[in-house]
Amino acid sequence: NAEQQARNAEQLAQNAEQLAQNAEQQARNAEQLAQNAEQRGMEQGMEQGMEQGKKEKAIEIAQQLLDVLDNETISQKTGLSLEEVQNLRNS
User: Which segments within the chain are labelled E, that is strand?
Assistant: First the structure.
């Protein structure tokens, strides 16, 4: 009986150690996931910022061309939609 209790206690200790190791691994995994999410967020933010900058530059160029080119040509050359060019002309 005492021998069985000792084996049970040893098994419980091993189980507790395994649980602690699992918890540590899960903590490392969670940290890695957080770092990955942060990196993806930064990349997406940079990409959106670059796209916004390109759009603003296209609008700036289009505004400079409004008095010398027609809407369709400005649209083709800047990548702005025809509607966006028309809105620029009307504003």
Answer: none
What pLDDT sits at residue 48?
97
Query: In which band, very low, low, confident or very high, does the pLDDT at 2 lie, cut at 50, 70 and 90?
Result: very high
Mean pLDDT over 11-17 rounds to 97
**CB proximity list for 66: less than 8 A, separation 6 or greater:** 74, 85, 88, 89
Give the Cα separation of 18 and 12 in Å (integer).
10
Closest CA to 72 of 57, 61, 62, 60: 62
Q: Residue 59: is it exposed, middle or buried by C-beta count within 10 angstroms (0-12/13-18/19+)?
A: middle
